Each structure stands twice: as C-alpha cells, then as structure tokens.
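Holo prediction. Input below; ligand is zinc ion.
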Amino acid sequence: MQRENLKRLRIQLEGRVQGVGLRPYVFRLAQDLRLGGWVANSSAGVSIEIEGSANAIANFLKRFPQEKPTHALFQHMYVQDIEIQGEAHFEILPSFLEKKSTALLPDLATCSKCLEDIFDPKNRRYQYPFTNCTKCGPRFSIIEEAPYDRSRTSMRNFAMCEACQEEYDDPQDRRFHAQPNACAECGPQLRLWDKKGAVLSENHRALLQSAEAIREGKIVAVKGLGGFHFIVSAYHGEAVASLRARKHRKEKAFAVMFSSLQSLKAEAEVSSLEETLLLSAAAPIVLLKRKKISQISPQVAPQNPLLGAMLAYTPLHHLLIRELGFPLVVTSANLSGESICYDEKNALERFQGIADLFLVHDRPIIRHVDDSVLRVIGGREMMLRQARGYAPLTFEIEESCESVLALGGQMKNSVAFSYDKKILLSQYIGELQTAEARKMHRRVLQDYANLYQGKTKYIATDMHPDYFSTQEAKQWESPQVQVQHHHAHLASCMLEHGLRKKVLGVLWDGTGLGENHELWGGEFFLATRADYERVGHLMIFPLLGGEQAIYEIRRIAISLLYQLFNKDLFSKDEMQFLFEGMSQTKKSIFTKMLEERKHSQLTSSMGRLFDGVASILELRQKVSFEAQAAMELEFLADQSQSEQSYCFPLFWQDSKWIADWKPVLLEILQDKRDKIELSEIARKFHNSLAELVCQLALKLGQKQVILSGGCFQNKLLTEIILQRLKKKGFEVFWHHRVPPNDGGIALGQAIVAIDKMQEESK
Ligand code: ZN
Ligand code: ZN
Ligand code: FE
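Structure of the complex:
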C-alpha cells in the first residue's frame, strides 16, 4: 500500500466506555477492516489508535458509533491525526499506561477497590492513607524522571515489605507493578505537627486529631497529593471567615470537597456530564449550580450562585472526610496569587499565622500540582485551571518542529514547550507578580527541561516588556519570538481544534499588550496561527489610573461616561453614586486626567467594559479580585430570559471596524432611569455583545469563528454567542481542554512561534 494513503488516528473516548465490552468490539471492528493499532482503557475512558488506508479509517469512523455495544455511551470523542507507525496488527492492551510515550502520567483518584480496602477492618490496608494500585494513586506528583519506575519516584526510599513485594510481583494481582505500592508496614506515614513543627501524633491518631481540630473550627494545613491545602469545615462559618482573613482572600470562592456524589448532590445540581467529570480519575473541581437550600456556609462562595465542588481523591482525604461526616473547604495552601506549597519545611515557615496545625507525611512531592477546575459550557467541559489529572496537556502537530520553549503570560501562568511533533502545556503555576510563583516558574522550566531533555532552539514570550516571563527570557541566548497576547489566545484554540486556515477570532479578555502599545482586549482578528490582522476592536477609552482601575471599577465607569457627558458627568445628580466618599482632590485629579488625557493608558478591553457596566448598575464599585464584577454581571443576567438587546453599532475607521459602546451605555442609563430590572439590563447587555459578534461575522463573511480570551469563561456570554452564530450558519469553536484564560497563553505562544518559523523557512 502506498504510504501516502495511510493514516493513523488517535481516538480518545469519554463517557460510559469501560466495562461495557467496548474493547473487544473495537478489536473485532478493526480486524474486520484490517486496521492496525491498539485499544486500551485509560484514566479518562478508552484510548484507541488505528492505522490503515484512509478508506478503511473512514469506514471505521462511520461504523464505530453506529454498531457500538448497547450500554456504551460516548460523551466525547476526540480524534487526532497522528504519525504513521507502520503497525499492521491490532491488539488489546492491558492498560493505556504501558503505551503512553510521554514521561509524565497523571495522578489518579483512588479507585473503588482501594476504597474498599481502606474501609475494611479485616483488610491489611485498613485506614492506611497511602493505599493505591495500578488503577489509582500518585504518578505526576512523584515521578523524578522517565521512565516511570519505582526507583525513579519519590517512593524509592520506601523498601516494600514482603506482602507488598508479593503483590508487586504477581501478574494476577491488581498491584502488579504498581510503582507507589505500599502499606502501613513499609510505606509513608502521617504526622501531625503543631505550629512549631513539633510532632503531636502519628498515623491514624494524627488523622483523628486533625479531624477533631477541623470539627472545632481550626485551620489545618494538609500535605496532599500535589501540594498543601488549607482545610476547614465547610459548615463552620467562623472557620471559613478566619481562613479568609488569614489567607488575605476576601471574597473569591473556595472549593469544597465531598465524600461522595450523593452528599454533593444535596448541595448542587449535577448534570450527567458534570457527574462524569466529577467521577473521572482526574477528579477535578467542577463549577456547579448551587441549590437554594444549603448547609454550606455562605462565607464559602459569597455572592456566587456557583459552587466549586470535587470528590475526595486520595485515601487520606477519604479517611478524613468520612471521619468528619461533612464537606470540607479544601483550598491550595498559599497566600493569594502565589503558587501552591509542596514542601513541609517551607509550609511551616510560610504558613505561620495561617494554619493552626500541619498534617504532613514523608512521601516527598516531586512536582507541584493544583486541583484542576472545569465548568460545563455549551454542553462541553471547559478547562479553567489545568493541573492535576490533565497536565501536561499534549498535542500532536503536523510537522516536526524546532524545539520552542514558551514562557507564558503574567497571570495564571503556565509554560509550554515542543519537541519532535509534540507540544505540551504545563500545569498551572500562578500569578507571576508574587515571588513564590516566580520561583515556581523557574523550577517548572528546569523540571521539564530535565524530563524531556529538550535543547531549546527558540524562546517564545509575550510582547509585554514588564511581564516577569518576558524579563526571564533574557536569561536565554536562544533567538526569541514575541507573540501578541491575543494572537496567542487565538492560536491556542486553533491548535485545540486542529484548525490551520484563516479564521475569525473573537478575542475578549482583561488585558494584553497590543502592537500599538495600547491595552487590547476587545479584539477581532482575521488570522492563521502564523499571522493575524486586527480587523476590528472595541472603541478605545482611557484606563483611569492604569492598573488601579481593575480594582476600583468605578474609575472605568467614570472614564466611559466621561466620553458621553464630558465635565457634566461630575455634576449630574444621577451619577453621584460614582463619587460617593470620593475626596474633592481625587475628583479634580480625575477631571484633569480625563481632560488632558494624561496618566491614562488607552484600552479596548472587553473585560473592562464589563467592569464599567457593573459599576454603572451599582453592583459594586470595588472588587477584591479581577473579574469579580464581571462574574456578578453574568450571574445577574442569568436570572433574566430577555431576548432584547441594545444597539451596538460598528463603524469603519482606519481600515478597521470599531464597536461603539456609547449607544449601549446611553440605553443602559435610560433603562436604569426607567427602573427596568437590573437582571434584564445585564441580560440585554450580554445579548448585545452576541449581536455585535454576529454583525461583524456577517460583514467579514468568515465561516469559522473562534471564541477565546478570559471573557469566554462567562458561560452565558459564550452560550448566547454560540446559539446566535450557529443559527446564522457559522461554525463556532470554543475552548474545551485548553484554558480560554491566560492559562492557555503559553501553548498559543509556542504554536505561533512554530508556525512563524515554518513560514519563514519556506
Ligand atoms: Zn486502586
Ligand atoms: Zn508493605
Ligand atoms: Fe488574556
């Protein structure tokens, strides 16, 4: 057969795909069509690779869903073209892990059998918090180097006892070659420390004493799988409040851990996809709709109809939570914005004054990993924070490329790199304005360099000269490629969907530096992964006092409204809410700044327009974390069913479409005067944005539209745009596994750099 006609696909299936006879079915179908390859259960579902003629592969894809076993349910099917391997025969592999070529495997949530073991008084692993088997347990967080073998993990200093060794050597045992296999005799041990690091108790006693402290409302720092968490009772309002005060986290929601799906369902609505995600071996945090009646303290997620929920995913968490009998606030141990802490000595120093007790163990954490966060949007999961169970995210690319190391953005930083035909996105690192996150950034870069022995040919960074990641690039001698922030967002989404031809990108976020030194963020690009043209944007406005405006959002409203009313703004009665408690001096400084257009950066940011509207609707005038007001505007809009929208005109200027928000604000003010429900106004604002996208897409006539940038974490906004664009015949792509926020920037930088280089070499 001619090589050109050969294809190889990787298919990842999620849903009800294990234990339903899917593997033998795939095997028979592949045999029938004379395809080579393999099928195996994987942590996320079932993985298949098939190789053969393009024809046979097309047949497979057609017949596969039609003839599938009755009980199988495909929630998601990811199909990827990959490199041909010349494989002619087909086999069922015992476990996906054996064929995976990447060095890092994800940590897997405790399986049901191990769970039975730890709660069975007759089992030798009764109450042992580090129980695991080949189907579950630590991987990513304990691997020192590849290949995955006990001697190259942080379990290497624990010699197995006779009983464990027997299991490890027995091919019939489910702990056959389970690298972190251990028991109370030979494995890691728990210890409870006081604030000074003095041992209070050990093993099960330490667990019981921690539980007692949590019950009393104390804050316990618990060394988990990929780092420390602060744990308090989710029912204990005072405990949650004191955690907020000590962690300097005023209002941002905390995640809650439940012992079982059943207990979780008492607090939140769970769809079948959400259920699948929660129960998956990745066991992420899923943002769910809270129930009205709840036992959970309102302090956990103030002003927030959502609950970030996850299920216990290690034996330690299961034992603790079952002992307590109520859900727990489980939040990454750090001060706001820092990276998660994963070393007990460091924890003791850093968390003086935060944690009352430290529950630690002696299995070193090699690699930090936070809990992943997902939200279901448009009927699909969307990754908001990519970490445990998912990272590193790997994509195959079409041609082999030079190795690129992408240093990411400033916020929600992660890094990416490429080698051969692969491109990888690291786990979430943190906000790089904190020293701890910067240290972690360096460490992660070093870690991946060691693991993949990559020799970096190119460095990709953001264009922003002040980003720590951009500064850091100076340490490399390799040639550097600067990638515009929103182009990186767009390219990351194109990569996820295997798109290469020109698309229309709707790129909305808080900020990213533009080519003209303005702060972009309400952008429309016509682009490929190598290049972009800025074909439109939100009309620019000054960001009063720069960065400060992000937190004092009335500055944005003042700046926007000044464009409408000039100086009159300051004296208008209906605008006085903007100046409440503001000194005359500050007021005159603002006036001066606006009049003289001084000390103000110009921005076209959609995120800021959301802040401005939230301020005008008097939802709040200050926020304690970025996008807080925008989120509240979304939640408010979600309470209305209105189909109406405001007029959001586009005009043509300097060869670009400018989206004029002035008429929108005027109509909003009129609705406010007319005492229209705030939820309806918020909804109409969302609808107008969807209409704006439709208008522009129709003008440009580009069939494929990409939605990327932090604003598309807004479920309502994304779903309305999706619906309206689809109705008009557009093909819409949004984020699933790559975060739409700055957590995906590094991946975009890497692929832009690769494609640019390839274009140049042509
Ligand atoms: Zn297990
Ligand atoms: Zn043992
Ligand atoms: Fe961004």
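The first helix runs from residue 22 to 32. That is the main takeaway for now.
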